[in-house]
Amino acid sequence: MVRSCSGLLLIGGGDVDPALYGEVPHPKTCDVDTGRDAFEIALAQAALVHDIPVLGICRGAQVLNVALGGSLRQDLGPDGPPHWSGFEPAHDLVLEPDSLVSVIYGSHRLKVNSLHHQAVGRLGDGLRATGWSHDFAIEVIEHASKWAIGVQWHPECQPPVRQGDEPLLSEFVRQAAMTNEYLVVPPGVTDR
């Protein structure tokens, strides 16, 4: 199924089941959906095997990390990011200057919105941390050899630089469009 996709967008939602990274749930763990976890982790792993671009947003970044054997910080506590800020930036973010996200935005500092009480813990295989918030929570992960990015904020809710233009989402669509040239699956052919 995933081979017929041009890109994989993993979106926000409830917490990822801590059992998937060998931990017991924190008292603030909520809205776990084990079926969704299993489905999205399998999709992320298949997309990476087939070199399909992956963008993980909020929970999606966490799913990407867990899919590659990483763990999560289950609760950031009172020093974590502010509660949901909607379209308004809630905190600053520092990016590695050589990171994909830094290049995409043309800056190594961003102001982003926030809605998460969890964050990436131990990095999954092939991932590197490339962006951090003021409390040193990992806010951006990137795969070392594939186009796979996870961000803790919600770029779909950020104020656009220009109307209808959000740099990260635009680059994801561009990457997916380039992938589509090579993924022509005739009707009736199933993914193997």
Describe this entry's structure for a reader.
The chain has 192 residues and is α+β, with helices and mostly antiparallel strands. It has one domain: Class I glutamine amidotransferase (GATase) domain (Rossmann fold, 3-Layer(aba) Sandwich), CATH 3.40.50.880. The protein has helices at residues 34-49, 59-67, 100-105, 167-180; strands spanning 8-10, 54-57, 72-73, 91-95, 109-112, 119-120, 127-133, 138-143, 148-151. Helix 1 links the parallel strand 1 and strand 2. A 7-stranded mixed β-sheet has the order 1-2-9-8-7-4-5.
Short description:
With 192 residues, this protein is an alpha+beta fold. The protein has 4 helices and 9 strands, in the order E-H-E-H-E-E-H-E-E-E-E-E-H.
Essential attributes:
192 residues, alpha+beta, Rossmann fold, seven-stranded mixed beta sheet, two-stranded antiparallel sheet, 4 helices, 9 strands, 23% helix, globular
Q: What order do the helices and strands come in, and which of them pair?
A:
Elements: E1 8-10, H1 34-49, E2 54-57, H2 59-67, E3 72-73, E4 91-95, H3 100-105, E5 109-112, E6 119-120, E7 127-133, E8 138-143, E9 148-151, H4 167-180
Parallel strand pairs: 1-2, 2-9
Antiparallel strand pairs: 3-6, 4-5, 4-7, 7-8, 8-9
Helix pairs in contact: 1-2
